[in-house]
């Protein structure tokens, strides 16, 4: 296989792998009523499945990211996919509800091993001038799972039964286990860099991922309640809500892909910081335009386009600024994303209950502006060279 074809195949394998992981994450929510009925529990109790996944991911990702630096990205991806498949089969065939929740803990840990390692190994093998684009392409698999994987899985659950959704995910992840084994080098961080990685200061890690936390809080604090807010408080029809979410989804996918390209051209720090500033500004505009339907649709598409450009740009920045600790920093950054989602949904719930949906964009914009300030004042614009990176990491042949 020539190098160009090999690169395309790597991107495709990474994209499909993250699409499967994302589908597993997002499909649980629409399947909760079916699962709750099956196990004779309430919908709130069935929601423990989502909580178990999220807690396992947030806690496990930093440790597993450091482990990928030690044993190799490819090895951890393959092991994670095997556990992911096994845990999904356990989800499908659990005889008791608590065993079902335990299976989602295992799925969360497996996802925490796979997702950051895919990002890290993509950063390892990508050309210097295409790194942001590669990270954006691979990462778009998670976004596509939200708009395609979850609805398809939900429909399959309604027609064939929810257990077949998780059986299907298990079979697909086993296939991807063999493909990931084939396409990636097993990059291991060398001794000196590994020792530096293990002694990375906790404050340095938190400072590096803080923009992601504030970004996740701003974006998901607003998005989590967008559908219900538009329908209940703004009296949008079901068709208009669906159109609004479609505009948002299209903007998110295009924004994510272009965020990587812009980071390659103008620098990751500049693009990430500017994206957060524009995100905050668009939230203010959305707050003003809430009751003007067509203007709101345009603003939602722009909000998603500008907002989702941040994530691949910031990932590229972490890859550049911490070339010897990519596994650890990418894993911590993914944990930061889930922390931001949790904070955003919690804050959004409080705002919805006390002030109402119309105040939510104005509160979330504060988080975006704080994130932009932190992004601007930390790190550097320095581009790491391939030569510097290659002296500290050694790919192990299959």
From TrEMBL:
<feature type="transmembrane region" description="Helical">
    <location>
        <begin position="271"/>
        <end position="289"/>
    </location>
</feature>
<feature type="domain" description="Major facilitator superfamily (MFS) profile">
    <location>
        <begin position="10"/>
        <end position="383"/>
    </location>
</feature>
<keyword id="KW-1003">Cell membrane</keyword>
<keyword id="KW-1133">Transmembrane helix</keyword>
<dbReference type="Pfam" id="PF07690">
    <property type="entry name" value="MFS_1"/>
</dbReference>
<dbReference type="InterPro" id="IPR020846">
    <property type="entry name" value="MFS_dom"/>
</dbReference>
<feature type="transmembrane region" description="Helical">
    <location>
        <begin position="295"/>
        <end position="314"/>
    </location>
</feature>
<keyword id="KW-0813">Transport</keyword>
<dbReference type="InterPro" id="IPR036259">
    <property type="entry name" value="MFS_trans_sf"/>
</dbReference>
<feature type="transmembrane region" description="Helical">
    <location>
        <begin position="46"/>
        <end position="64"/>
    </location>
</feature>
<feature type="transmembrane region" description="Helical">
    <location>
        <begin position="76"/>
        <end position="95"/>
    </location>
</feature>
<feature type="transmembrane region" description="Helical">
    <location>
        <begin position="134"/>
        <end position="153"/>
    </location>
</feature>
<keyword id="KW-0812">Transmembrane</keyword>
<feature type="transmembrane region" description="Helical">
    <location>
        <begin position="335"/>
        <end position="353"/>
    </location>
</feature>
<feature type="transmembrane region" description="Helical">
    <location>
        <begin position="101"/>
        <end position="122"/>
    </location>
</feature>
<feature type="transmembrane region" description="Helical">
    <location>
        <begin position="205"/>
        <end position="226"/>
    </location>
</feature>
<feature type="transmembrane region" description="Helical">
    <location>
        <begin position="159"/>
        <end position="179"/>
    </location>
</feature>
<dbReference type="InterPro" id="IPR011701">
    <property type="entry name" value="MFS"/>
</dbReference>
<feature type="transmembrane region" description="Helical">
    <location>
        <begin position="238"/>
        <end position="259"/>
    </location>
</feature>
<feature type="transmembrane region" description="Helical">
    <location>
        <begin position="12"/>
        <end position="34"/>
    </location>
</feature>
<feature type="transmembrane region" description="Helical">
    <location>
        <begin position="359"/>
        <end position="376"/>
    </location>
</feature>
<dbReference type="InterPro" id="IPR050189">
    <property type="entry name" value="MFS_Efflux_Transporters"/>
</dbReference>
<protein>
    <submittedName>
        <fullName>MFS transporter</fullName>
    </submittedName>
</protein>
<keyword id="KW-0472">Membrane</keyword>
